[in-house]
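Bug #2210: token dump truncated for Efflux RND transporter periplasmic adaptor subunit?
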Amino acid sequence: MNTNADLLKELRIDRSPGPPPSRKGLWIALGIAAAIVLLAVVGWLLFGRAQPVAVQTATAVSLAAGNASTSVLDASGYVVARRMATVSSKITGRVREVLIEEGMRVEAGQVMATLDPIDADAARELSRSQLAAARSQADGVRAQLTEAESNASRLRSLVDQQLVSRAQYEQAVATRDSLRAQLSTAQRNAQVASDSLRISDIGVDNTIVRAPFAGVVIAKAAQPGEIVSPLSAGGGFTRTGIGTIVDMDSLEVEVDVGESYIGRVQPKMPVEATLNSYPDWKIPAEVIAIIPTADRGKATVKVRVALREKDARIVPDMGVTVSFLEKAPEPDAEPRRGVRVPATALVQRDGGDAVFVVGRENRVELRRVQPGDALGEQREVVSGLAPGETVVLSPPDGLADSDVVGTGTN
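Reproduced locally. Full output below:
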């Protein structure tokens, strides 16, 4: 049974310090808050930010001073050489010397390389010796024939006088005729030996590789010590050419024109060519011919274009853009200011003509312009647009100023 003292102890308040409070709940709360913020940022990036508008673009091209003319069709192609050859030797042999380098100009007949002539020289010496032997044999037979003819003539007079038998005379005549046949054979052998020597001389000349026409060397394919052959023999260890030369006067342009537009192109039609490497240089040209066959896979027809100007800057396989013109440009015409863009780049905004110009970070700028004449599928822009600026083709109705676009060159 508890006493009063025990009961009083039970009623006493415990004032000793308790255990420190736990921070686990605080960290859980902070983690939940961070997750909510992260989800909010991701949701804004995925759904809140405006997505770029996919569009096609084109570059504004300056109208050439004095050379501007109405273009009925634009196409792209490449500069090609109608006269180009990889020069090889006519025989198989070891290269002794190469006399060309890339970029070097050669004339027709100029020596490009020489082969080791040991075998050819030996064959020529043998043919020369055979010719000398054949001629010596013919001279010997000719001397014998002279003696036989004299003997036959003398016996003929004696047999008429019945001083020698007719058998002796007939034997002398047979000897004479036999020597005549031997002389004819010896002379033919000498002619054969002479022909063989001439062929051997050609063999020696074949060890010298010459340029078939005047041009510029664009590739050097062999080095001294290598084996060259006119045919591919010996796998990758045998060269089939000494070098490649191009007749720069035969350069022209080949373009592929779509079947739907080939009706706009005519032979002798004036053309303006622009090299991709020199966009400000307009080269006068004209259509040579329309190749009468189509590419089934690409649905195009090849057109040959002749360049009226020759220049060292024009080299094979250069990319080129050509404009087929309605009429030849007038050299003395007044310069035309402005640029030309595809007609689909112009739109109507707020009652006026405008274009969307792509600027930094692919943001578009709605810009008012003053359009000019129609140039086929192109449109002249007199003011408001500078050469080289990028414009949007067929802008969507919802496209607005400062929108971000995803561009694709047309």
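Output looks complete on our side. The chain has four helices and 25 strands. Marking as cannot-reproduce; reopen if the truncation happens again.
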